[in-house]
Hints:
The protein is α/β, with parallel strands linked by helices. It has one domain: SGNH hydrolase (Rossmann fold, 3-Layer(aba) Sandwich), CATH 3.40.50.1110. The chain is 40% helix and 12% strand. It has eleven helices and seven strands. The chain has helices spanning 11-14, 25-34, 81-84, 87-90, 120-124, 129-146, 170-175, 178-194, 204-213, 219-223, 240-262; strands spanning 2-9, 40-43, 47-48, 57-60, 113-117, 151-155, 199-202. Strands 1, 2, 3, 4, 5, 6 and 7 form a seven-stranded mixed beta sheet that branches. Helix 2 crosses helix 11 (240-262), helix 6 runs parallel beside helix 8 and helix 9 packs across helix 11 (240-262). It is globular and about 50 Å long.
Amino acid sequence: MTIRIMALGDSITQAANETPSDPGGYRNDLQRILGSKLGTLEFVGPFEDGPSGSDRSHAGIPGNFIDGSYRPPAGDYDPNGAVNNNIFDRLSDLDGISNNGSNLSIESYQPDAILLMIGTNDIGNKDTPANAANRLKNLVNTITERVPDARIFVASIVPFNRAGVDQGTDQARNYQNVDPYNTRIPVVVNELAQQGKQVTFVDVSGAIKAAEANGTYNLAADYNHKPAIDPNGDVLHPGPAGYAIVAQAWATALEKAYRSQHLGLE
């Protein structure tokens, strides 16, 4: 059995804040965790990042918003950020290159599984949790219509690094909305599942918080794992330990969905 996996999202999918000696973010860890448990995994997408010898393909674009309908306020934000860089509009042209004859659509990759994590840039640019969740619902619904045979795994977004933000700033206030947004994602997924859509919620944020709570993970230290390169730390992107937790959450969901099929029980 071959499972074609599209990792779809923003810079966290692309693997920002990765370790130079072990790049690829959660995608590299996911391949290591699953190995041949589910047969052959084939990652698909227009971009390549990661170590040689791994399947480096993905569809993670730094700065991606959910769709282009949101207009961040002017001032400290690019009011056209979502218009110019969002997943919804790129479903027909995932490489983001227009008028060159390629127009690599999501259908052209024929994914069996789509790992979707999106919303960090929306929340970070003053979108409300309710509005972002409504836009996410529309995006996921559209993806199910365009690739109806694919299973869509929709993740909560990773927590932000509070230690890297000056409290009382707009940035700190924006990221206080991460948790309220995350609580709405399973509601969206459940509603679509009740309509017969092949969608599954994956609680990535919950997995990271659980590891923090039991003392096996230090978020602030992980996000700031490259002090010589980034002395101020990273607010949004996990380091190696965080990406490994993200990968395990995806792996658990994929195994639950595909294990019986791989064993010939379906």
